[in-house]
Structures are given as C-alpha cells and as structure tokens.
Write a structure and sequence with these properties.
Layout lengths: L5 E9 L2 E9 L9 E10 L1 H8 L10 E2 L3 E9 L9 E5 L14 E4 L4 E3 L6 H23 L9 E4 L4 H12 L4 E5 L5 H6 L4 E4 L16 E6 L3 H9 L1 E9 L13 H5 L3 E4 L9 H9 L12 E5 L3 H9 L6 E5 L4
Parallel strand pairs: 9-10, 9-12, 10-11, 12-13, 13-14, 15-16
Antiparallel strand pairs: 1-2, 1-4, 3-5, 3-7, 3-16, 5-6, 6-8
Helix pairs in contact: 1-8, 2-3, 2-7
The structure holds NADP nicotinamide-adenine-dinucleotide phosphate.
The site of NADP nicotinamide-adenine-dinucleotide phosphate has 31 residues, from helix 1, helix 2 and helix 3.
C-alpha cells in the first residue's frame, strides 16, 4: 500500500440506490485536510451499517469512503499540533458521512477533527471504544453534570448488548452505579452481568401498549439507545429529578410522551450528540475514557475483523444482532 494506491470501502449511489464495495484509491482522491493518517484500525457503529447498506439515509455526499471512526499514525501534517509518527484518533464531524472515512488505508482530515491518542490507550483500544465509547462517556459526563451520582438510585441502559449499551453498562458499573440492563436478548443475560449489570430486564417483559403519563419512579438515570415507546416508558418511570441521556434511535425515531415527567418530577431529557463536540471538551472526554471511565471489560466485549468481512458484519447490526464492539483491522488487510 502506498499513497498512490490504497484499499477503501466506497459507498456510492446510482439511480437512487446505495451500494458499497472495495476499490483502489490514490492520494488525489483524498478529501482536503491538514492531517494525513495511515489508518491502523476503524470500527463498526450502527450508523456505519446504516450508511454502507443504504438502510438509513446517512451519507450526505456520494461517493464517500465509509467508517465514522479511525485510529492510526500521522504521515503528513500542516497543522502544528500534529507531526509525522504521532498516534491519533479521528471520529465524528463529517467523517464517513460527507468526508472520506476510516474504511481506507489512508485518510486525510482537518486538524480540528483529530485527537492525540491518550496515554494508556492503544490504537486498538481507541477503536474498541470508537464513537460508541465516546458517546457513552459523553452521556455519563452530561448526566453527572446534571447531578447524577451513584447514591441517587438505579440507572437503566437500553440496547444494552450493543456497542454504546455494553460500554455504558461497563463504565457505569465501574463508577459505582446500580446498573439495570434492558435487552431484547435473553441469551445474553450472563454477558451483561459479566459487564457489571446488577439486574437484567427483558424488553419483551414490558407492556408498552399502556404507558401512563407517570408510573412508579424507578430510575435516577437512563442511557437510551432505542427511542420510541421505550424512551416514553423510561420518561414515565423516572424518579424525581432523574436524568435521561437520549443517545439512539435503534428502535424508533419518534417519541410520544407527555410533559408530566418533566414538569411534575423535574426529569431532564438530555440530548447527546457526539458529532460536533469541540475542544477542549472532546479531548477531556477521551482523557476520561483513558482513566477513570476506562471500561474494565473493553477487551472482553471487543472482537476484530478484517476489512473484507465488513459487508457481512453490517448485516448483523441491521438485524439488531450486534453484541459488544467490532474493531476493523485496516492495516492488517
Ligand atoms: N447521539 C450520538 O451521537 C450517537 C452516537 C453513537 C450511536 N448513536 C445511536 O445509538 C444507538 C446505538 O448505537 P450502537 O452503535 O451501540 O448500535 P448497536 O451496536 O447496533 O446496538 C444497538 C442495540 O440496540 C438494540 N436494538 C437494535 N435494534 C433494535 C430494535 N429494532 N428494537 C429494539 N432494540 C433494538 C439491540 O440491543 P439489545 O438486544 O440488547 O436490546 C442492539 O444490540 C443507535 O441508534 C445509534 O445510531 C448515537
């Protein structure tokens, strides 16, 4: 692989139909940016699967190399903050949606999108975390800024076996919270307890046809990856002063609830968007991921795949069968 010829997973649109496939690219096709990076690893997030399969309208510019996350080593930089040989992480902003992303052996991005690899993390760890880890940590940081503490009461995590979910369960349990993992996968209860969940609830056990404006308050905090009726049910079952981090829409984009939890129980619904968090906050969240929030079971919940395995693995995400984190070994082929 040279800058003249490197492998990439390119997402294209023809006659309104989205498809993705492997191509050889060269330096002239890279997008503008101050930092050129030899990519070591990328990862798969739900958004990557939606983008590459066309199951969701994610790509804002065609053609686009997929992969919203990447870690690697700087080859060239005109940004004084980075020099050749530096290990770095690049996630969020337009990466993999409107700017060529991490499913390529070489990437070029603006310096403002690059974060130095924190000490105590390897390039592999950084992608085992990826956008999923950054977002789970961001949700926890925001909830704690809003007053959440382990002594306040249980915290529920939905979509618990997924990337954001697994990482949130692990980080919250490590931080001393009583974590209740809500999952659709009965077979993964032991996996979730192994990450530190004190209780595992099955999504199928909930009756979402009768969500009351206010039900018995059970949660001091909530990390929601699903949206829709699950989020409405969570809102109605929050304790007084509870805090919800709304992160995902794996079940539904809609939200049909009442104002009762917000005005009668002082519940806060915090929107969490990992995409456009700027410095120094971005670097601060990564530092916490490398220190007090570092998930103790990161290696156990992560597996590595080769680039060629991407298309088949995307289907697991679309089918809701994703578990833990998938790291894509870009440098290894
Ligand atoms: N706001 C942000 O900045 C941000 C950043 C990253 C991710 N996200 C969003 O957060 C969500 C989770 O992302 P991820 O990368 O962790 O995804 P993921 O690894 O695919 O995990 C999603 C999990 O949600 C559950 N699930 C999937 N489809 C479902 C359905 N139709 N109905 C109910 N549950 C379903 C499954 O867990 P169980 O079987 O255990 O329930 C699945 O493992 C996605 O919606 C993603 O777009 C947002």
């Amino acid at each position: 692989m040279t800058m003249d010829s490197f492998k990439a997973l390119l997402i294209e649109q023809h006659d309104g139909k989205v498809s993705s496939g492997f191509v050889q690219m060269d330096e002239r096709q890279l997008d503008p940016g101050e930092v050129t990076i030899r990519v070591a690893y990328s990862s798969i997030n739900y958004k990557d699967a939606l983008a590459a399969t066309g199951a969701g309208k994610i790509i804002r510019r065609f053609p686009c190399v997929g992969g919203i996350d990447l870690s690697g080593t700087v080859i060239e930089s005109t940004d004084s903050r980075f020099k050749p040989g530096d290990p770095v992480i690049a996630t969020s902003f337009d990466i993999g949606v409107a700017h060529h992303g991490g499913y390529a052996e070489i990437a070029r991005v603006p310096g403002d999108w690059v974060v130095p690899l924190p000490e105590n993390l390897t390039l592999f760890d950084a992608m085992a975390l990826g956008t999923a880890g950054f977002t789970a940590a961001l949700g926890i940081v925001r909830m704690e800024e809003n007053g959440l503490r382990p002594g306040n009461g249980p915290v529920i995590v939905t979509g618990a076996t997924g990337g954001v979910g697994s990482l949130a369960v692990d980080m919250l349990a490590k931080s001393g919270y009583h974590v209740v993992a809500l999952t659709g996968k009965e077979s993964e209860a032991d996996y979730l307890r192994g990450l530190g969940a004190a209780e595992v609830m099955l999504r199928q056990s909930l009756d979402l046809t009768k969500i009351r404006p206010l039900d018995r308050g059970r949660w001091a905090g909530a990390v929601d990856n699903l949206g829709g009726d699950i989020l409405a049910w969570i809102a109605s079952t929050m304790e007084q002063g509870g805090t919800i981090a709304s992160i995902g829409l794996a079940a539904s984009m809609s939200l049909n609830t009442t104002v009762a939890p917000f005005i009668l129980r002082g519940v806060s619904l915090l929107g969490v968007d990992s995409g456009y968090i700027r410095e120094p906050y971005r670097r601060g969240v990564w530092q916490r991921l490398a220190s007090d929030l570092r998930p103790p079971h990161l290696a156990a919940m992560s597996r590595s795949i080769k680039m060629d395995e991407l298309p088949a693995t995307f289907n697991e995400y679309i089918a809701g069968r994703a578990k833990g984190r998938v790291v894509v070994d870009i440098a290894g082929g």
